[in-house]
Amino acid sequence: MEEANGCRVVHTMGRNNCGGRCIIHAHVRDGKIEKLTTDTPEAAGDCVPLTACVRGMNYHKTFLGEDRLRYPMKRVGRRGEGKFQRITWEEATDTIAREWVRIRDTYGVGSRYVNYATGISAMISGSSLAKRLLKLDGGYLDYYNSYSTACITQSTNLMYGTTQTGNHLADWLNSHLIILWGHNPVETKFDCETMYYLRRAGDKGIPMIVVDPRRNDTALALGAEWVPLKPATDAALMDAMAYVIVEQGLQDQDFLDRCCVGFDKAHMPAGVDPSECYLSYLTGETDGAPKTPEWAAPITGVRPEAIRSLAVRYATARPAALIQGFGAQRHAYGEQSARGGILLACMTGNVGVSGGWACGNGLCTRHPYPGLPSVPNPYGMAIPTYLWTEAILRGHEMTALDGVTGGEQLQSDIKMMVNLAGNCLINQHGDINRTKEILSDTSKCEFILCSDLFMTASAKFADILLPGVSFLEGENIVVPWQYGDFLGFNNQVIQPLYEGRFEYDWLSEVAAKLGLGPQFTEGRSFGQWLEFCYNDLRKREPELPEYAAFKEAGVYRYQNNPDVIAFQRQRQDPEQYPFPTPSGKVEIFSEKIYRTTFRDFMPAIPRYVDPPEGPNDPLAEKYPLQLIGWHTKRRCHSIHDNNLAMHKLDPQCLWMHPDDAARRSIADGQEVLVWNDRGRMRIPVKLTERMMAGVVALSQGAWYDPDPDGTDRGGCINVLTSLRPTPYARGNGQHTNLVEVAAV
């Protein structure tokens, strides 16, 4: 902290689920924030600047407004109605402890669930603390996956055995071609490094291509070529590219033969019919339909000559980087587009080489992260994070086919939900109207505990609602989100507003009422836990400075950052350095799928599957437009939507191609009705040729705001999205939706 002229400058870092992880310098006078400034290239030196975007520079205006929750409250109306009564913290923690025990003793520990929440994405979150206490109290039903990356994570592990499949990002400067597939880092703000190196690659003259149904801001910023395609058809385009590569003999057959299993008949697992290989599917041997560009064109909307050009350019650029974002895998059968990208990287020999990219998750973690000491969960069972609504309705029926792990079948439905700093109870979950119906029934999930900053759509469904604190009112340790070689400290800038408290404080009180206080805190304050975890990390990262110096600076940028080329050793000598898969090779053909009941609805190879609510679904006769979402530059998921000053940066509206509008007599800026069988909304429309014809788009994260007849006026896309999970990962397919639009 620096001080001059009575103004104190506090160095801190954002901790919500934004990849930017920007450095914030808060200028404070008399306990109030006068302004925020951020990192500069001069301050960063030779490192990538951790510079805040418009979201970061508006943190104080978003978090410190008059709309904050101020006191603990209990529900007094119908659940979801939003009627609450102020109570004391003592009454709140008494109620929590009482319900905690009642539900445990009545239904078993597996009836308790901590919901996926990312409002605090720092080393220690309220969710992780609630899980710690539940573990000490006999356990709870856990989850795995994330709303963001379920399909790509499961698929990358399936094929490579690890998600660490990325080269260090500076290596993009050694590529001869970069393809961004469903990847929009300008608006999503994956991190500070991605666009830094992509811009440098552009300055170097490396050609770039963006594959996306929408010509996004990343394509504009990089001057990239745009290849539009119909949503959920990515795998078909990848199949056709693979066909062209084989047809012209451009595949890296040596890499496929030495390092992969399942591409052709000669390299199949023992005991499996060789005709099940990918090449037999590609050539049409198995179904009579060669996967030519002419086959793919009507499916994808991409012209055959454009498909051939894309395939040849990628296969011959060598090295080339096909970088997958998370958009394509948040579709029905999103696993297949993720697997298809990995297949293309293998076919073109871009795995294990400088300038290439192995696809999949693309993680490149060069330094370990700090964390709370692990406590085992005695219950041990988990569900995919997207299926908690199903676990409320029929948890006692859910088995491995529903993605249950750690046991054959759940013993109970979810009866208690803990939702801390998260908006996935309603706003960010699929099919809002069905989700509301499930949560409104208090005979199903009997107790919902929420902590938040604002009266969000999710907070309205709490039985006990607690006021939290923003990152400006507390401290934590922050780690990189996707890429980055630093550790940040979230210094407290001001005192908590009203009666807001961080979750550790009141959970410690609940722990004491459960007789678990000493085990939960181990005698440490929250600040002491931060120091303990940091010093534990220093044993593995000796270059880190003393804790006090790190905290004062607000950030430490690592100096010892090794160059990483994923799978370089495996490529050179797969016998001595096998891939971390059961076969020791890249598994283009998956025995894990083939030899289980998953094979009934999930192919063992990465091929296109016609999705429900895709362009060929008969439902398209009723709802002819495909609806997708994107991450707007003015919100981080649903954070910042209450900051009305930022709305003008990217007004909430439905993007639509002029041809689709003309057929419906819709004018630019006009209010339209968007609907399907799940819900309805009214919203202004933006006509633009940056949108592919036949597709409409709506940025995700807008706050749900229904009028009396249930029509949403806030522009929340999840009024229209499906709760249908993907077939293998059981991830969210919230980008695969059919709708109709009409002028109001």
Notes on the protein architecture:
- The chain has 744 residues and is of the alpha/beta class.
- The protein folds into 3 domains: 73-144 and 371-471 and 499-523, Rossmann fold (3-Layer(aba) Sandwich), CATH 3.40.50; 151-360, Dimethylsulfoxide Reductase, domain 2 (3-Layer(aba) Sandwich), CATH 3.40.228; 618-743, Beta Barrel (Barwin-like endoglucanases), CATH 2.40.40.20.
- The protein is 27% helix and 16% strand.
- The chain is built from 23 helices and 27 strands.
- A 6-stranded mixed sheet has the order 6-5-17-16-15-7, covered by helices on one side. Strands 22-26-23-25-24-27 form a 6-stranded mixed beta barrel.
- β18 and β19 (486-490) form a beta hairpin.
- α9 crosses α13.
- The termini are far apart.
Architecture blueprint of SSEs:
Layout: E1 2-4, E2 7-13, E3 23-29, E4 32-38, H1 41-44, H2 59-63, E5 73-75, E6 84-86, H3 89-107, E7 112-114, H4 126-136, E8 142-144, H5 150-160, E9 178-181, H6 185-188, H7 193-203, E10 208-211, H8 217-222, E11 225-227, H9 234-247, H10 253-259, E12 260-261, H11 278-283, H12 293-300, H13 304-317, E13 321-324, H14 334-347, E14 382-384, H15 388-394, E15 416-420, H16 432-440, E16 447-452, E17 464-467, E18 476-478, E19 486-490, H17 503-513, H18 517-521, H19 526-538, H20 547-553, E20 555-557, H21 568-572, E21 586-587, H22 591-594, E22 625-630, E23 654-656, H23 658-663, E24 671-675, E25 680-687, E26 695-699, E27 737-743
Parallel strand pairs: 7-15, 8-14, 9-10, 9-13, 10-11, 12-21, 15-16, 16-17, 22-26, 23-25
Antiparallel strand pairs: 1-2, 2-3, 3-4, 5-6, 5-17, 18-19, 19-20, 22-27, 23-26, 24-25, 24-27
Helix pairs in contact: 3-17, 4-17, 5-14, 9-12, 9-13, 9-14, 12-13
